[in-house]
Amino acid sequence: MNMQSKHTGRRQGESNAKEDIILAAQNLFALSGYDKATIRSIAKEAKGDPALINHYFKSKQELFIESMLPLFDGPKLLQKALDGPDDEIGLRLSRLFIFLISNERTKSLIIGIIRSSTTDEQAAKMLNRFITENVASILKQKIKGKDASVISNLIGSQFVGIVMAREIIKVEPIVSLSEDDLMKYLAPKLQIYFD
Fold first, then answer.
1. 25 and 37 Cβ atoms separated by less than 8 Å
2. CA distances from residue 6 to 9, 35, 54, 90 in whole angstroms, order as listed
3. 87 and 180, same domain (yes or no)
4. N or C: which end of the chain has fewer CB within 10 A?
């Protein structure tokens, strides 16, 4: 499965205020969470004026949502991971999980939304909705039986837990595991849901 990321960021010799604001917001939401990333701090990070943020975005919530939109590539990748032999789904899902948390852009977005969800009720609702509508709904189509809803949400929760442990709380030895070792532990656990 090819999961190459597109090059992102400002193009050489070109200044785009809206893009700069979104990149600054992604960075600060990842570092500080929704609650602590203020319009003023985002403007400072973007080397712009807070009024410019208000020009492009109606609210901090709208900026948060727009800055997190690249995460919506995740469901397409999830669908691809589910295609193929059933006895290798755990391996393909663990590869996808590891890709998402090792790719710098998606990692910072995922950390941002998870960190924000722990401090802000609106961000928590957005994360809940994203997992239910864009992760669990896709997984349910592949999982057989009456427990499909529970199992699909458990898989989504497992991913959130791995991000929390490895990237936010920094639990050892999970942080120090190589990607290959993490996959070795994760793939069989995910496969159980599809056997």
1. yes
2. 10, 29, 28, 25
3. yes
4. C
Q: Which of 67, 88, 107 is where one domain is finished?
A: 67
Which residue range(s) make up the domain with 41? 17-67
- Amino acid identity, position 25: A
User: What is the domain-level CATH number for residue 31?
Assistant: 1.10.10.60
Tell me the CATH number at 105: 1.10.357.10
Q: How far is CA 190 from CA 7, 18, 28, 89, 125, in A?
A: 30, 39, 32, 8, 25
Whether 102 and 41 share a structural domain: no
Using one digit for the tens of pLDDT, what is the confidence trace for 141-179? 888 777 898 999 899 889 999 999 999 999 999 999 999
CA dist., res. 97 & res. 174, Å (int): 14
Tell whether 56 and 74 lie within a shared domain. Answer: no
- DSSP output for 87-102: GGHHHHHHHHHHHHHH
DSSP 69: G
The rounded distance, in Å, linking the Cα atoms of 45 and 27 is 9
152: buried, middle or exposed (CB in 10 Å: 19+, 13-18, 0-12)?
buried
Predicted TM-score (pTM) above 0.85:
no
Prior bond to 85 cis, omega within 30? no
Rounded to an integer, what distance in angstroms lies between the CA atom of residue 113 and that of residue 36? 13
